[in-house]
What does this fold into?
Amino acid sequence: MKTTRRRPTTAVPIDGTALRRIRIDRGIEVADLASRIQVSRAYLTKLELGISPRASATVHAALVRVLQPEQRDAFRADRAERVRAAS
It folds into this structure.
């Protein structure tokens, strides 16, 4: 039986609501954040609304660098429950 190997994914599931909340708490406009992380305003809006539920590891790292959340996993959808429980 042949097994299929799955490639490790570099896409990071994003909790758009948490991302938006942190951005607003920092007083940063969508257009300004998009410019700082070098993505389009439309793409960032889609991340926040959950239309694009995943971001590349590079975009996620840029979001963490610019927004500086208290926890690195603050807007990762796959780890959001753990982060909320710890708060």
